[in-house]
Design brief:
Layout lengths: L5 E4 L2 E4 L11 H4 L4 E9 L2 E2 L2 H14 L8 H16 L8 E8 L15 E8 L6 H5 L1 E7 L13 H8 L1 H4 L4 E5 L6 E5 L3 E5 L5 E3 L10 H10 L7 E3 L2 E2 H5 L3 E6 L3 E8 L2 E2 L7 H16 L1
Parallel strand pairs: 7-8, 7-15, 11-12
Antiparallel strand pairs: 1-2, 1-6, 3-4, 3-5, 5-6, 8-9, 9-13, 10-11, 10-14, 14-15, 15-16
Helix pairs in contact: 7-9
GO biological process, one term: amino acid biosynthetic process
Enzyme class: transferase
Protein name: branched-chain-amino-acid transaminase
Length: 294
Amino acid sequence: MTHRLLSYQRDRYVPTEDLSLPFLDDIGGTLRGYRIFTACKTTHGKIFRLDDHLDRLYYSAAALYMKPPLTRTALKELLYEVAAKNLELTDSSTDLVLDVIFSGGLQGNTFQQSGKPAHLYVAVQELEPPPPELYKTGVVLATYPHQRMCADVKLLNYIGAVLAHQTVAPLKHAYDVVFVSPDDAATLLEGSTFTVFFVTDSGEILTHPLDGKILDSVTRRVVLELLAGRADMKVRETPVTLAMAKSASEAFLASTTRNVLPVVKIDDIQIGQGRPGKITQSVMELFEAYLNSY
């Protein structure tokens, strides 16, 4: 069932279908692409890991010399209010996605700061998770040579993913794409909107480190926290190459809207037995248990 939800536009609530980002007083955002965001979700009536999202959002603003529209405390209170208003409009089984956007702050048509804060938008939609069968069968990823600009900042720029989905994704009949570093044409960085993990034959879980070449994913943080200190599942942050992926026994991806989703093939490389493995299933169960207790 689709509910009539409320989004937040600068200083007021509007129906989500009426949300707009005005043009003339935000040329920095509309024409210059001077925008950042974070995508939060609700679970059991709470905003999941909101502090982590705010950490990254305010880090992104500082990295781009953008003046936030609100203090962190004020924004946190507003987001609680936005979530509460919308959860009242839905049934108890509905989870939401809140895209929190900082837009603009430049002087007119220039690239100089205006001294004014960015505009604030909170776009609220119902969460649409992947079909349940994908968690049983796993998904196929296609590789695409791309390094996101300011990779540790969550920009509103997905041109690499858009191009990949017009080219390699349909060619490989892929669910989504994983970016390969253009520097060496070998290192697997991150997905279009997710982090990737690989499991070695010895059971070690590998994922790319936070070296400025990937985003500090909130779901990535959660996965690493859940696995920290476990004797049965060791994790190491290290670059993973295509050659290493060929010998991986399992793989999975992690993101806000997908949680943990098995990966069974990358391009023409079958991962392990071509089906979700035991370690991946264990990580999925750990994550689901954490969500249920949140």
